[in-house]
């Protein structure tokens, strides 16, 4: 079955740039979506179609994709950005949508 | 305002079934597909499938085929997800989520509205 691979954890100091990667064989052909989930809350989309930001999401959140790796970048990470981040995409058939295992971002 | 409000927590014994509801309000019930996503304790997210509230057609992820049924009641703008033959590994928070649509297209991976989640505990 299709898998998306993320690092379990990333840690940065406030104001630094955090980068979270997501690896998947179909990513050259399929878009990645990124969700932020804070403790006790439902997930919230921060990036769609690899690079687009929904309205209301701060500009410090950006996305990119190259080859089999999609990347979520948080420029000038803030304490309130501490959360789990999940990438989401589909296999090459478009029928099997999966989330990555999630990355715990620590900002301190 | 736009909302998806889910039913409350449930405790079930192994082998039983559970039916979680998701009531939509503040938007056109038939305009957006609704997906169901679950999250086991301290674990990641897992999509279960989706339903077209307009037609009732469904697509279930392979892992849940034969064990899940997603339905809707258009008279009450309510979606339902029923999972049968429950086992301990099904203990999770179950979310309904609305897929985002623009005037020209809909996004299968873009969820713009979520329910608050319903905790289902399977224990003997």
Can you describe this structure?
The complex is a heterodimer of chains A (108) and B (124). Chain A is mainly beta and 108 residues long. In chain A, 0% of the residues lie in helices and 44% in strands. Chain A contains no helices and nine strands. Chain A has strands spanning 9-12, 18-23, 33-37, 44-47, 61-66, 69-74, 83-90, 97-99, 103-107. In chain B, a hairpin with a 5-residue loop joins β4 (34-39) and β5. In chain B, strands 2, 4, 5, 6, 9, 10 and 11 form a seven-stranded mixed β-sheet that branches. With 124 residues, chain B is an all-beta fold.
TL;DR of this structure?
The complex is a heterodimer of chains A (108) and B (124). With 108 residues, chain A is mainly β. In chain A, 0% of the residues lie in helices and 44% in strands.
SSE inventory with pairings:
The complex is a heterodimer of chains A (108) and B (124).
Chain A (H helix, E strand, L loop, with lengths): L8 E4 L5 E6 L9 E5 L6 E4 L13 E6 L2 E6 L8 E8 L6 E3 L3 E5 L1
Parallel strand pairs in A: 1-9
Antiparallel strand pairs in A: 2-6, 3-4, 3-7, 5-6, 7-8, 7-9
Chain B lengths: L2 E4 L3 E3 L5 E8 L8 E6 L5 E7 L6 E3 L7 E6 L4 E6 L8 E10 L4 E9 L3 E5 L2
Parallel strand pairs in B: 2-11
Antiparallel strand pairs in B: 1-3, 3-8, 4-5, 4-9, 5-6, 7-8, 9-10, 9-11
């Amino acid at each position: 079955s299709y898998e998306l691979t993320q690092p379990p954890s990333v840690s940065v100091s406030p104001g630094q740039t955090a980068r979270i990667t997501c690896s998947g064989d179909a990513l050259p052909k399929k878009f990645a979506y990124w969700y932020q989930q804070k403790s006790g809350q439902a997930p919230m989309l921060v990036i769609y179609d690899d690079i687009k930001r929904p309205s209301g999401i701060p500009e410090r959140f950006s996305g990119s994709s190259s080859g089999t790796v999609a990347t979520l970048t948080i420029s000038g990470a803030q304490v309130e950005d501490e959360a789990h981040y999940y990438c989401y995409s589909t296999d090459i058939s478009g029928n099997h949508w999966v989330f990555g295992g999630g990355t715990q971002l620590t900002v301190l | 305002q736009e909302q998806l409000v889910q039913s409350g927590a449930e405790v079930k014994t192994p082998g039983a079934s559970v039916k979680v509801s998701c009531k939509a309000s503040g938007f056109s019930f038939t305009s957006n597909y609704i997906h169901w996503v679950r999250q086991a304790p301290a674990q990641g997210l897992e999509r279960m499938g989706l339903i077209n509230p307009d037609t009732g057609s469904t697509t279930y992820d392979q892992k849940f085929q034969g064990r899940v049924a997603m339905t809707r009641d258009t008279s009450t703008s309510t979606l339902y997800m029923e999972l049968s033959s429950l086992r301990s590994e099904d203990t999770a928070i179950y979310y309904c989520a609305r897929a985002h649509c623009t005037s020209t297209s809909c996004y299968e991976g873009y969820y713009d509205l979520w329910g608050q989640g319903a905790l289902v505990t399977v224990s003997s």
